[in-house]
């Protein structure tokens, strides 16, 4: 399913931030999504080599030598050294939030697939699930494709994780080719931006966070995502 009329989404072309800020920003965007009243697409980066661990994972799943932050979403360990990260935030009641998990993954990852196709990268969407034998408390995200992840020659190059609350849907995604990106970040961002518009039938308007939102992000960063209490909770 896709909206039959052209929708307007907010688009935050964000910069590089520390790991705790990035997770705090996504949480703040989710919890303010109903007030904004429309979806938001965010592209952003990391200011240091980092890994994020899934909400239910153990802290010792993270490798040494990286800054570590626990995501508000599930999934496995994700390396943020050479990846391109994006977020989709959808308020409750929106058609995309009303889809089930696999359907929403499919729609969003079709946009990622289309963006890569524009760059002559012939990616496919996975059709299998993670085997039950995989330990989800310690698994590495890109070593374990699941349904509708993005694959290149059978290797996972884009994955994502979601959180659903009364506020709406948070979808956190990462594109990683196993080393430095084969495209410049601006070129990849441009292709993905166009693909989201084409696949989901949307137009975007530039988003600038308000002073109140920035204060909320800083508060969440300092009180939660930058604390050992949060990151070592399991």
How would you describe this protein?
The protein is α/β, with parallel strands linked by helices and 234 residues long. It has a single domain (7-231), classed as Bira Bifunctional Protein, Domain 2 (BirA Bifunctional Protein, domain 2), CATH 3.30.930. The protein is 32% helix and 28% strand. It has an eight-stranded mixed sheet, with helices on both faces. Strands 4-3-5 form a three-stranded mixed sheet, covered by helices on one side. A hairpin with a 2-residue loop joins strand 8 (150-152) and strand 9. It is globular, with a radius of gyration of 17 Å.
% residues in beta strands:
25-35%
Global outline? globular
Oligomer: single chain
Number of DSSP strands?
Answer: 11
Widest β-sheet, arrangement of strands = 7-8-9-10-6-2-1-11
Instruction: Kindly provide the radius of gyration, computed on alpha-carbon positions and rounded to a whole number of angstroms.
Output: 17 Å
| Helix content, binned percent | 25-40%
N-to-C order of helices and strands: EHHEEEEEHHEEEEHEHH
CATH topology: BirA Bifunctional Protein, domain 2
Structural class: alpha/beta
Give the CATH superfamily: Bira Bifunctional Protein, Domain 2
Mean pLDDT: 92
The CATH architecture category equals: 2-Layer Sandwich
The number of helical elements comes to 7
The domain tally reads: 1
Level-1 CATH class name: Alpha Beta
Distance between the termini: 37 Å
Low-confidence stretches: 130-134
The major beta sheet can be summarized as: 8 strands, mixed
């Amino acid at each position: 399913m896709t909206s039959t009329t052209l929708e307007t989404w907010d688009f935050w072309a964000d910069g590089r931030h520390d790991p705790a800020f990035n997770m705090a920003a996504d949480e703040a965007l989710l919890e303010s999504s109903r007030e904004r009243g429309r979806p938001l697409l965010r592209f952003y980066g990391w200011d240091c080599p980092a890994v994020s661990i899934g909400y239910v994972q153990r802290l010792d799943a993270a490798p040494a030598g990286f800054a570590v932050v626990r995501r508000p979403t599930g999934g496995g360990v994700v390396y943020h050294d050479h990846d391109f990260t994006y977020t989709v935030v959808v308020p409750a009641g929106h058609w995309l939030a009303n889809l089930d998990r696999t359907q929403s993954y499919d729609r969003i990852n079709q946009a990622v697939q289309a963006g890569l196709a524009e760059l002559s990268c012939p990616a496919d969407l996975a059709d299998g699930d993670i085997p039950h034998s995989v330990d989800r408390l310690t698994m590495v995200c890109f070593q374990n494709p699941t349904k509708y992840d993005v694959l290149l020659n059978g290797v996972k190059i884009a994955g994502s994780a979601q959180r659903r609350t009364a506020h709406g849907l948070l979808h956190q995604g990462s594109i990683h080719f196993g080393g430095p990106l084969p495209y410049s970040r601006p070129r990849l961002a441009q292709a993905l931006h166009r693909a989201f518009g084409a696949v989901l039938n949307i137009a975007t308007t530039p988003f600038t966070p308000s002073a109140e939102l920035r204060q909320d992000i800083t508060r969440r960063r300092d009180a939660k995502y930058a604390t050992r209490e949060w990151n070592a909770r399991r």
